[in-house]
Write a structure and sequence with these properties.
The chain is α/β, with parallel strands linked by helices. The chain has a single domain, classed as Vaccinia Virus protein VP39 (Rossmann fold), CATH 3.40.50. Helix content is about 40%, strand content about 20%. The chain has ten helices and nine strands. Strand 5, helix 5 and strand 6 form a beta-alpha-beta unit. The protein is globular and about 45 Å long.
């Protein structure tokens, strides 16, 4: 039996997200690239209700299984649709994407933020989590259909271009992800190097539902070592180094200007 999604970096990202959600007003969310549903579960546990959309049908099914209770209660829905093409019938207080816009061309990134702004409630916020720092480009970017890694300077530029207010621009997972990077690269090379031959779209779709032992899937007993409680001191460390340009993940919050 395996425990999914307890990778140290993923835990740290969700701990930070949960903490930031306490500061935000709003009751509804849209998650683009909702994957297997673990970020959605964090949003739901924070008291929000919403919708997750993803291009990967299998990931959508796993999301539904994970968050079945919220779906049955009418607090959550999962749809296998394209964010750019789907006709949404409502607006949202929080629009979240985690490891999504790095798959997009510059033109599509602009289209993404224009679309997100159209779907955002007046006091809402766009939360974006991305891989950071071009110098860390490696095999995981090659096999996942990434177009780029971001820097801290990118999000002030996005805010200015679209007339948004930058509320947060923080580096995450340092130093944990940096220390684990060599091991992570070896695991990905051994299990997913064949994905280099796929198209960008195929890589992007598959990235929403990866099953790699000791990368995205772990033996059940690892949950005793990797969980919110044991990782909390490292969460405090990532907050202390939130401005470090060695952080491998960037978290941003962009809000409609008052």
């Amino acid at each position: 039996m395996r425990t999914r999604e307890i990778a140290p970096g993923s835990i740290l990202q969700r701990l930070y997200l949960r903490e930031r959600l306490r500061r935000l007003r709003g009751g509804t969310f849209l998650e683009i690239g909702s994957g297997n549903g673990y970020n959605g579960r964090t949003l739901l546990k924070s008291g929000l209700r919403g919708l997750g959309v993803d291009l990967n049908a299998s990931a959508c099914e796993k999301n539904r299984e994970l968050n079945r209770e919220a779906i049955d209660a009418g607090r959550y829905d999962v749809q296998h649709v394209d964010f750019f093409a789907h006709d949404f019938d409502r607006k949202f207080d929080v629009i979240l994407s985690c490891m999504v816009i790095e798959h997009l061309s510059d033109e599509d990134v602009d289209a993404y933020f224009r679309r997100a702004m159209e779907l955002l409630e007046p006091r809402g916020v766009i939360i974006t989590v991305v891989p950071a720092q071009p110098r860390y480009w490696g095999i995981e970017d090659d096999i996942a259909g990434h177009k780029r890694r971001y820097t801290f300077a990118d999000f002030p530029r996005i805010a200015q271009r679209f007339g948004l207010t930058l509320r947060a621009n923080a580096g995450l997972t340092f130093p944990v992800s940096n220390l684990l990077l060599p091991l992570s690269n070896r695991i990905v090379q051994a299990n997913e190097a064949h994905k280099r031959g796929l198209s960008d779209r195929e890589q992007t779709i598959l990235s929403g539902n990866r099953e790699v032992t000791f990368k995205t899937d772990f033996p059940w007993y690892m949950g005793l070592l990797l969980n919110d409680v044991t990782m909390y001191p490292l969460h405090l460390a990532q907050k202390a180094f939130a401005k470090s340009n060695r952080a491998m993940v960037i978290y941003s919050e962009l809000a409609l200007a008052a």
